[in-house]
Amino acid sequence: MRDADAAMYQAKDRGRNRVEHFEPARRDSVVRLHQLGNELHRAIERDEFALLFQPIVELRTGRLAGFEALVRWDHPDRGIISPADFIELAEDTGLIVAIGELVMDRAMQQLAAWKHRLGQGADRLTVSINLSARQLGEPELVQQVSDALARSGVEPGCVWFEITESALVMDVERSSDVLYALRGLGVRFAIDDFGTGYSSLNYLQRFPAEAIKIDRSFVRGLREGSDDEAIVSAVTHLGHSLNLLVTAEGVERVSQLVRLRELGCDHVQGLLIGPPQTTPEVDLALPVWLDAGLIAKTVGVS
User: Taking a C-beta distance cutoff of 8 angstroms, is the pair 210, 244 a contact?
Assistant: First the structure.
């Protein structure tokens, strides 16, 4: 059974819907995976998850628009574990539902705390929260979001949910129904990693999205005359023609920032703008960001 389990995970890693024979070299990795799964259960019970917040800025003005909430596993022995190393396992085991509810609740509570502390200066501040395919299929999702909004007291329009294209199209009818039900609560939606999935205009029309996020893989190769620039330009024009905001992820160089502004991108985030930060780090920086504009001097915005 253990060896069959190893073959199953290998099939998943290689695209699913296929047959894989057991390879002895996989045994150790599957044992580690099972161990990690057990530890993930305990992590939820022991509250070992922490949130980091990465700033998102309005490119035209350089002003802070909000933050994306990013979950990290603070393992007692291994230290900080990246989502890339546990989110897929959480999806497969269904634990992503509990983790997602925790992230949602804490992100909204933190946004409410910032708004309360900073007053009118933080009126437009938003928080973006990632939703997984498994969460979209959860019958209680709409109620979970409604309860989290009620507990935090934040305006629903200040809360964005980010969903990847691949998550949306796993069950188009179900996804559409859930998103419209959530939209009825007043929250907003962005399609994440745009350009890496199906990128169908039909899906953009069917879902109540208000923004698209250009994947970092296209921003990385952004330079005049490149294929990546052509894609970024096309996606930006497409988004604006559909009245969608366009955010570029993974901005790490000033040249990328300047070019994105020239192409008309609305929002940007990435290491150049600011790395994911803990709540105390954001607490220290927030007044400066809100007062002066985070990147105004960098791109010559007045």
Answer: yes
253 token code pair: 């160089």
161 beta partners: 129, 189
Q: Cβ atoms within 10 A of the Cβ of 64, count?
A: 26
Q: What is the pLDDT along the chain (302 residues), one digit of tens a residue?
A: 878 877 887 787 776 788 888 877 666 666 666 677 778 888 888 889 999 999 999 998 888 999 999 999 998 888 888 888 888 888 888 889 999 999 999 999 999 999 999 888 788 899 999 998 889 888 899 999 999 999 999 999 999 999 988 788 777 888 889 999 999 999 999 999 887 766 567 777 788 899 999 999 899 888 766 888 999 999 999 999 999 999 999 999 988 998 999 999 999 999 998 899 999 999 988 887 887 666 666 666 65
pTM over 0.90: no
The domain defined by 49-299 carries CATH number 3.20.20.450: yes
CA distances in angstroms from 230 to 203, 218, 220, 253, listed in the order given? 22, 9, 13, 18
What sign has the CA pseudo-torsion 192, 198, 203, 205?
Answer: positive
Bridge partners of residue 51, in order along the sequence: 71
Span(s) in the chain for CATH 3.20.20.450:
49-299
* Amino acid in the structure at residue 15: G
d(CA 266, CA 286): 21
User: Is the separation of the CB atoms in 66 and 56 below 8 Å?
Assistant: yes
* Partners of 54 in beta bridges: 68
- Looking at residue 298, its amino acid is T
Q: Is residue 30 a contact partner of residue 6, using CB atoms and an 8 Å limit?
A: yes
